[in-house]
Write a structure and sequence with these properties.
The complex is a heterodimer of chains A (114) and B (109).
Chain A lengths: L4 E3 L2 E4 L5 E6 L6 E8 L3 E9 L2 E5 L6 E5 L5 E5 L8 E8 L9 E2 L3 E5 L1
Parallel strand pairs in A: 2-11
Antiparallel strand pairs in A: 1-3, 3-8, 4-5, 4-9, 5-6, 7-8, 9-10, 9-11
Chain B lengths: L3 E4 L2 E5 L4 E7 L6 E6 L5 E6 L3 E5 L2 E6 L4 E6 L8 E9 L4 E4 L3 E6 L1
Parallel strand pairs in B: 2-11
Antiparallel strand pairs in B: 1-3, 3-8, 4-5, 4-9, 6-7, 7-8, 9-10, 9-11
Classes of the chains: A mainly beta (114), B mainly beta (109).
Chain lengths: 114, 109
């Protein structure tokens, strides 16, 4: 079956703009979580959605937001982009939420902010 | 929250050599996974191994939960094994997965 699909794969934005990233989980998976990966901070948890509800949020400013739709697809949005938002954004899906799930990752969306 | 350390940070091997990667964590866990990040950035599942030992081809992993560490063994390494290896554990306090800093492996032909 198809894996986790993230779009777009690459994008370039300028400071102050906003960006929306999309993630389609593996069929049947209801949990979607997002991670930011930078050379300096490594992989950091952004948020987790399960059944259209945000279950947990990492230590990121309010400019980072997300949502999940009834078909389990998820989007994350970053508003008022800053240079430091340049990163690889990874989405993971899991059958179950939280501790009970095994994570499966997409290929990521690589964002460059100029 | 839970702290995750990985060692060594960098490892260079000749093709055919064996290696052991280590993951230490600061609190008890009941969900631990190993991933390989390929040069294109995708994280590939290697093992879901909260305890015990598993093997998959040339790779095997062991988690000793009571002593708070996990080991990933790579035997007869190949150039395609190059990349960064991460362990991730579930933080029961923060209710999210925490990743270690990774081990960067380079396998030379």
């Amino acid at each position: 079956k198809a894996g986790v699909t993230q779009t777009p794969r690459y994008l370039i934005k300028t400071r102050g703009q906003q960006v929306t990233l999309s993630c389609s989980p593996i069929s049947g998976h209801r949990s979607v979580s997002w991670y930011q990966q930078t050379p300096g901070q490594g992989l950091q948890f952004l948020f987790e959605y399960f059944s259209e509800t945000q279950r947990n949020k990492g230590n990121f400013p309010g400019r980072f937001s997300g949502r999940q739709f009834s078909n389990s697809r998820s989007e994350m949005n970053v508003s008022t982009l800053e240079l430091g938002d340049s990163a690889l954004y990874l989405c993971a899906s899991s059958i179950l939420q939280g501790n009970t799930g095994e994570l499966f990752f997409g290929e990521g969306s690589r964002l460059t902010v100029l | 929250g839970i702290q995750v350390e990985q060692s060594p940070p960098d490892l260079i091997l000749q093709e055919g050599a064996n290696s052991t990667l280590r993951c230490n964590f600061s609190d008890s866990v009941n969900n631990l996974q190993w991933f390989h990040q390929n040069p294109w950035g995708q994280l590939i599942n290697l093992f879901y191994i909260p305890s015990g030992t598993k093997q998959n081809g040339r790779l095997s992993a062991t988690t000793v939960a009571t002593e708070r560490y996990s080991l990933l063994y790579i035997s007869s390494s190949q150039t395609t094994d190059s990349g960064v290896y991460f362990c991730a554990v579930f933080d029961n306090y923060g209710q999210n997965f925490v990743f270690g800093p990774g081990t960067r492996l380079s396998v030379l032909p």
